Amino acid sequence: MSMSRRSILKGAAAGAALTAAPMIMGASHGKPKVVVVGGGAGGATVARYLAKDSKGALDVTLVEPTRTYYTCFFSNLYLGGFRSLDSIAHSYGKLASEYGVNVVHDWAVGVDRDKKTVALAGGGSVPYDRLVLSPGIDFVDGSVPGWDISAQNHMPHAYKAGSQTELLKAQVESMREGGVFAMVAPPNPYRCPPGPYERVSMVAHVLKAKNPKAKILIFDPKKKFSKQGLFQEGWEARYPGMIDWLDAEFTGPLEEVRPDSMEIVVGGEVTKADVANVIPAQKAGRIAEMAGVTNDKGWAPVVPATMQSRMDENIHVLGDASQQGDMPKSGFSANSQAKVAANAIRGALTGSKVFPAKFSNTCWSLIDTDNGVKVGAAYEATPEKIAKTSGFISQTGEDAALRKQTFEESLGWYAGITTDMFG
Q1: pTM for the structure as a whole
Q2: Which pairs count as long-range contacts for 3-7, CB under 8 Å and 24+ apart, including other chains?
Q3: Residues forming beta bridges with residue 111, ordered by sequence position
Q4: How close are the terminal C-alpha atoms of the chain, in Å?
Q5: CB neighbours of 391 closer than 8 A, spacing ≥ 6?
Q6: Which residues contact 405 (CB under 8 A, 6 or more apart)?
Q7: How far apart are CA 296 and CA 284, in angstroms?
């Protein structure tokens, strides 16, 4: 009975809303409904901004399976001993209590674009007027021969933060003396372009103190990588002789990994590793594929000015999952895109003012204690893509004071972005 009473009350409220604000679409069934799938830098931000800025005019639901979210950004600093695991853990309590977001801890397992509903693993479905997908990444099956998700306890990816990050840290810290840490780096495009190389720096930082004769090998399918000059300068100065970056042109292609025997076969040569961090090729999180908004490369193309899917104008895709142009796949990018999408969605559903889309990104990396470097850019929306308009990068040979300042700047950013995401 209470359900039918609630729907009658909703109907009455809808009638009032229709009279007062004829701009509101979807008002026939109460407030316009926005469902956000994925509670990371894109999803949590867009949910908070929609709820906060609409001042109750929108019904915002966030669907996220985990109750504690561990940021991928700064998880390398946990590996290096510069952060605790708790310091990168965040909950959704404030989104619910302070902003009125309906937080549903469940898996989204399907999207019916005709009926405009999201199916949940626990049963039932959630209706939407606009749907935001911010599911992050999944891995491309078979992209690293011999590795699949069942091998992640032997050869962790640690590219979704949390238990995988804890496992990799434990493996590094218990390496035998003089052992080998091997990384299989991912092909472009992937989450956080400098991420694998910051990770190598953090592992080297730990090994230099605990296991100075250990070796780090990076097997890389790419000919170059983000901030390469800065990382290689830092490695030479701080970890001389410890790190070898081996691109496929030099070694030959990666043939397979053997999780049971901890072997990596590259160009016919077998390398035995004590720890193997395998980061496979990536694609949009699976729900984007299930919703039918991904292309043959596995990413979701979007309209730059609004982050709307090019396959469905009622769906917006943010962050790592989107194919948008020049922005890297990063937490900063996702947060920036979320604000643009929130503005566009609010305008479409409530008639509020929509401002021209502007985007920015900065990626900080730590090479060693107080030795921070950064790369970043500003972007605008063109009809074809999000296009870079200006950029900056740390320089080789910078003095220690500037590097320390860059690191401290990254700490301030982390505090700021996580507050922006979770309240």
Answers
A1: 0.92
A2: none
A3: 118
A4: 36
A5: 375, 376, 377, 378
A6: 372
A7: 11
Amino acid making up residue 114: D
CA angle 337, 343, 347 (to 5 degrees): 145
User: What pLDDT is recorded for position 12?
Assistant: 34
Sign of CA dihedral 32, 90, 279, 379: positive
How far apart (Å, rounded) are the C-alpha atoms in residues 369 and 408?
Answer: 11
Residue 10: which H helix or E strand, with range? helix 2-20
The pLDDT value given to residue 234: 98
Going from the C-alpha of 422 to that of each of 48, 62, 211, 319, the distances in angstroms are 7, 12, 38, 16
Residue 273: burial class (beta carbons within 10 Å; 0-12, 13-18, 19+): buried
* Short-list 263, 250, 251, CA closest to 151: 263
Three-class SS of residue 396?
A: coil
Structure tokens of 174? 């218990």
Q: What is the 3-state secondary structure (H, E, C) of 126-195?
A: EECCEEEECCCEEECCCCCCCCCHHHCCCCCCCCCCCHHHHHHHHHHHCCCCCCEEEEECCCCCCECCCH
Q: Give backbone dihedrals phi and psi of 269, rounded to 5 degrees, phi first.
A: -95, 140
User: Going by C-beta distance under 8 Å and a sequence separation of 6 or more, which residues neighbour residue 243?
Assistant: 200, 204, 216, 218, 235
**Bridge partners, 59 (sequence order):** 33
Check whether the bond before 65 is cis (ω within 30° of 0). no
Q: What is the pLDDT of residue 29?
A: 58
DSSP H helical ranges for 228-383? 228-238, 248-251, 286-290, 331-350
Query: Is-contact 211 177, C-beta < 8 A?
Result: yes
Residues in the chain: 423
Number of Cβ within 10 Å of residue 379's Cβ equals 25
| Blockwise average pLDDT, block size 10, the chain, 423 residues | 33 32 43 98 98 97 98 98 98 98 98 98 97 98 97 98 98 98 98 98 98 98 98 98 96 97 97 98 98 98 98 98 98 98 98 97 98 98 98 98 98 98 98
Is 421 in contact with 80 (CB distance < 8 Å)?
no
Is residue 378 within 8 A of residue 392, CB to CB? The reply is: no
